[in-house]
Amino acid sequence: MARTGTEELRRRNRAALVEQLHRHGPQTRAELTEALGLNRSTIGALAADLAEAGYVQETTGRSTGSAGRPSTLAECVPKAATVTAVEIRVDRVRFALVGLGGEVLERAETALDGADPVDAIEVVTGGTARDALEAVAAVPGLVDAGEVAHSTELGWAGRDLAGDLASATGREWQVVDTATAAAVGEWSRGDAHEATKLLYLHGGRGLTAGLVVDGLAPRGGSIQLGHIVVQPGGRECACGLRGCLEAEMEVFGYAEDIEYATLAAGMGDAAARDGLRRSGEDLGRALGAVVTATGPDEILFGGWLRELYLSAAAPVRSALAETTLPHLRSRLRLRTPVLGDEGALIGAAETGFATVVDRMR
Amino acid sequence: MLLELTGISKRFGPVEVLSDVDLAIDAGEVCALVGDNGAGKSTLVKCVAGIHGVDGGEVLVDGEPRHIASPRDAANLGIEVVYQDLALCDNLDVVENLFLGREKRRGIFLDDDAMEQLAAETLQSLAVRTIRNLRQPVASLSGGQRQTVAIAKAVLWNSRLVILDEPTAALGVAQTRQVLELIRRLADQGLAVLYISHNLNDVFAVADRIAALYLGRMAAVLDAADTTQSQVVELITSGRSGQLGLTDQNGVRP
């Protein structure tokens, strides 16, 4: 009995060490001892163990500038564990093969020209999906357990994407929504790791949002921001409801041309200025509902919502101030993502690595 | 509080430009200073920067009363001002501008490698991707890039309070967005930022608190999260908004 106990403990510690190196980059044994709260000799044994398994390599590291032998650095071997990450958009598919430690080993992008993205997967990934430990696809829409329940951007409803991808490539796939993936990416590789509840808003050909709690995506964290009704009985939306945020904001025009709209507003075009103001107010009001329901401590405006927020922050925040409780808004940080367009792809890969590390435990 | 101003007054001859102004700024926050032309924004900034002396009131840095008599005093206290007309040297490159007056030396020579590396690290920490070549003369940079260099200078010199006077006034749409993100990142890295602007969208995009000056007096200092655009406009134009703001008008108490 005691043996299985120590064996399990050892496995957990190994996983913790790999995770630490993967997330925070090359570190000395002293730094690892500090970060993991393990004994120095335990770290040594674990590192040697992982080096033998091929996950970790030890190098004579950076000099600290002071006298003495430079301490050895432990770092991940990128090729030891790879994740295939794919981001599907209406007009293109982007791919990255990411190695342990977060290094991007390969990258590709292909335009779809109306083809089904699943058909393009084999080509764009170049067959790497088979050898990768995990394969993750990010899709703009409402995703639940491998199924895309609704996607304005792709025009899908109830599509079993995980199944389709599996039959196209012959391996298992995880499916996440773009906004949630980007939230995971910003939390793990961006600037938002201090946020306990991070809400990422994604502006594409529709508006979606994703919530991560302590860097993890809870089931049901995928939010259909664009289909929150802000004007009951308002304009008809493609989803069948009336007065959805997407329809009221005329999202599709902005997705194409937010740059033009803000430039025109800046030059004094009254219609453009009025349009931006109303869009900002509608977005703020819809956000008010989301904030009240989920209580995030940071909101990131991604996709073209970055441009909209920076051009129309006054109406967004005014509407938010009028529709949320003081307690919820006082600690709320509104930011733009640092990873920019890369967030979803990086986050999809990180979602895969979370599974890889979980399996090592 | 990093910087605390209490009861600041300033006269130019018979004109009282600032009267009994209170303002406090803490590390890690962006405080926006708004007001109409002639409300006293620039004068207040110049008092903090050591260009004007104050006629009354106290300036406290880290809770201690300080006398800021010259821009050098301000710099020694970690206060850095980035002006509208960016004080950069056109004929020098980005690195030379960043280190102007505080060059790193190795012996009697300039340590160019160390300066270039430090400059690159600073820009990286601010997620600046718009400046590719650090050895290009500043004259060849766009307005937004010049503004970025001017702001990065403040970070490089370990300033604690950065004062930005209308940093986006002369910039295009895309450049304005980048500078706004940069301002926010400065504060998130733990600096205090005093940000002066006429554009309320820009103010709401980055500010944690909004201070409105009206005819030389502080009408109100509000949490940006609790404020609406129309309240700020009212404070700027009339000094009051509902229960907020100045309680008397032009010296006449109701």
TrEMBL record, chain A:
Pfam families per the UniProt record, alphabetical: ROK
Domain of life of the organism encoding this protein: Bacteria
InterPro entries: ATPase_NBD, ROK, WH-like_DNA-bd_sf, WH_DNA-bd_sf
GO MF annotation terms: kinase activity
Keywords: Kinase, Transferase
Keyword 4Fe-4S among UniProt keywords: no
Residues forming coiled coils: none
SUPFAM superfamilies cross-referenced by the UniProt entry: Actin-like ATPase domain, Winged helix' DNA-binding domain
Family stated for the protein in its record: Belongs to the ROK (NagC/XylR) family.
Protein name: Sugar kinase of the NBD/HSP70 family, may contain an N-terminal HTH domain
Organism expressing this protein natively: Glycomyces sambucus
Automatic annotation (TrEMBL), chain B:
InterPro entries (alphabetical): AAA+_ATPase, ABC_carbohydrate_import_ATPase, ABC_transporter-like_ATP-bd, P-loop_NTPase
Pfam families in UniProt: ABC_tran (PF00005)
Keyword check for ATP-binding: yes
Residue ranges of coiled coil: none
Gene3D superfamilies according to UniProt: P-loop containing nucleotide triphosphate hydrolases
Presence of the UniProt keyword Cell membrane in the record: no
Keywords, sorted A to Z: ATP-binding, Nucleotide-binding
Superkingdom of this protein's organism: Bacteria
Residue ranges of every copy of the ABC transporter domain listed in the record: 3-240
Alphabetized GO MF terms: ATP binding; ATP hydrolysis activity
Full protein name: D-xylose transport system ATP-binding protein
